[in-house]
Design goal:
The protein has twelve helices and four strands, in the order H-H-H-H-H-E-E-H-H-H-E-E-H-H-H-H. By secondary structure, it is mainly alpha-helical. It has one domain: Farnesyl Diphosphate Synthase (Orthogonal Bundle), CATH 1.10.600.10.
Length: 278
Amino acid sequence: MKNLNNIITPIAADLVQFEIYFEQTMQADTEPMDDIMRYVQESRGKRLRPILVLLSAKLFGEVNERTQRAATFVEMVHSATLIHDDVVDDADQRRSKASVKAKFGNHSAVLAGDYLLAKAMLLLSQPNEYNILQEMLRTAAAMSEGELLQGSVELSYHGSRNGNRIESGCYDVTALQTQYLDIITRKTATLLRSCCVAGALSVDATPEQVQQIAEFGLNFGILFQLRDDMLDGENVEQAQALLPVYYEKTMKALEGFEPSKITETLRDLTVFCAEREE
């Protein structure tokens, strides 16, 4: 399996420009907030979400300033979500480091998440960005619903919990699987879908092209979360059963695109996410 750096070679230069734009946008006017923003940047992940924005734009056109704004928007929203999640979950670690909540306190973490969301929305506040902003705001609402739904479902199982896993033996497996898919679609897959849509919209892709990449992004997002849950030891039974189904769906969605270096990159990225070990 190729490593991620080799896979994203076709957008390597665009990703460098993204990092510059992202760092500049994250800067705050006051020292306390700027300290937190620098800490957030040091705790960077794989940048999967901006990678999807850049690849989707490159699939239908050329990466431009609108693309970079969209990529920065999704990474800021993702970062804000993680900060708020750690407050809700009382989590002291994030990516093997102290979480923002643990290092700076709950009050500062909530304000930092709010700051990121506000700065993100400012990025897409221009009239010509309305379609991308509308897509992203719908996604943010779905993610909040998914988080709350997950908590509600967990509470309803009472004695069926074992650590962080749901024991399917006490309940109808099909119903559990449906609920599980609904939650991960809202919490994770909708954002990855919107990353693909935003990239396509940033280069004025046709409605048909937007719909095509949206289908890929949704299935890819579900696949990504299934593998994530398996690695985290959560909902392993359901994730193992569904992973090959959504791997096939994601690969099938790519068949609608013309063969190209970017299409091949999306295919390699799908394999990477299905087989990754971390």
